[in-house]
Amino acid sequence: MLKKVSVGFIAGIVCGMFGAGGGMILVPAFTHLFKIDEKKSRATSVFAILPMILVGIIFYTKANHVDIEIGLRCAFGGLVGGLIGAKMLKKASNNTLKIIFIFFISYSSIKMIFF
Q1: For the chain, how far is it from start to end, CA to CA, in angstroms?
Q2: Buried-state track 85-101, b at ≥16 Cβ within 10 A, e below 16
Q3: Strand extents, DSSP E, the chain
Q4: How many angstroms separate the CA atoms of 65 and 19, rounded?
Q5: CA dihedral sign of residues 3, 45, 29, 71
């Protein structure tokens, strides 16, 4: 239990500070530490992120750090993309998910370092 709460704690800090954490912290932790299969790790990550996001929304909005118009427009796109992504998750193999995830994280890391 302590290990699971600790992983959530670390993901919460990363989510709160950087607006990220699910894919970078939770999915690998669920897969490797808790031995959950790839698809269930991703779905559980989305479920676990919701409380972190709600806390972030409250604090960021109170501090006037949220552009509501942009946020709502992106949220609409995110709803559509989330629906499509969830359907794709059901069809993708675990190896395909791993490869796509590796490329996404690698690309994001390189962009952060050099741009």
Answers
A1: 39
A2: eeeeeeebeeeebeeeb
A3: none
A4: 12
A5: negative
What are the pLDDT digits (tens) for 14-29?
877 877 766 788 989 9
pLDDT 10s digits, 91-102: 999 899 889 988
CA nearest neighbour of 101 among 18, 41, 35:
41
AA identity, residue 70: I
CB of 4 within 8 A of CB of 34? yes
Distance CA 108, CA 99 (A): 14
Q: Is residue 6 within 8 Å of residue 36, measured between CB atoms?
A: no
Which of the four pLDDT bands, split at 50, 70 and 90, describes residue 58? very high
Token reading at 60: 């960021």
C-alpha 31/C-alpha 51 separation (Å) is: 21
Structure tokens at 18: 């950087």
CA distances from 79 to 51, 76, 112 (A): 17, 5, 26
